[in-house]
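S.,

As promised, the 3-methyl-2-oxobutanoic acid run. Input:
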Amino acid sequence: MSTTYTLDTATSRATPTPVPLKRLTVPAILRRKGGEPLVMLTAYTARTAQLLDPHCDMLLVGDSLGQVIYGLPSTVPVTLEMMAAHGAAVVRGSYHALVVIDMPFGSYEASPAHAFDSAARLMKETGAAAVKLEGGEAMAPTVRFLTERGIPVCGHVGLTPQAVNALGGYGARGRSAAEAAKIVADGKSIADAGAFALVIEGVMEPIAIALTQAVACPTIGIGASAHCDGQVLVAEDMLGMFERTAKFVKRYDDIAGRISAAAEAYAGEVRARTFPGAEQVYVPKE
Ligand code: KIV
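Predicted complex:
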């Protein structure tokens, strides 16, 4: 697969990438610790990336694309090939935000060397500046291995969706004192290993606050706390694409309702033969 970072064109459906500007960098994200909150959303396609990019500091090519785009039951079946294809599209569609790409389940857990090969492939094939991986203390040596070799890593602790089969579901984590302490220890070990940011998902709020105070890198909350150094949501959840979402999702639109209404209007006009109208048909010049 070829690597395409920039296309210097005006935007259109045929040439969707705008004139490239300087992207936010990993050191710039690190400097935001304790400062202006970091804004992160997921993006899986070039056009969505274009629309979200001006408003975001980071775009996450999340493996949640397994459920959102492919209708899979979890993120477990997502492959490196799927991540690479969508990651390249998001990089082509953005020019301002730092693009972070998820390492899919099975592409990094076996060994630091395997993780390096997978991460290097994702970065080469997409142009993303950083990878994200899930897990706590057990993954710390891998985070160190990657960061020492020039691969910026974002950690992900608390509710880790790739571990759904071990966790038994997507419920919030850290209800017991022991589990809360484990999540804080997990986050610290990943940050100490060199992560430049740490996603904290689906935890009791005091855990997110304690971790945010305990680590030197910015924390990015999702179902965590407004006291994190930034927030992330799945864009389709936030846009109202799905009827059922987690408690932590706030819907800023009803995109599902709008798509449905537009499709209904189109279907009505096709059946009534009022579409296409005069403006949409080609007539030969006299
Ligand atoms: O895959 C994803 O979208 C994520 C976010 C929910 C943090 O990991």
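Residues 1-9 have pLDDT under 50 and may be disordered. The chain has eleven helices and eight strands.

- D.
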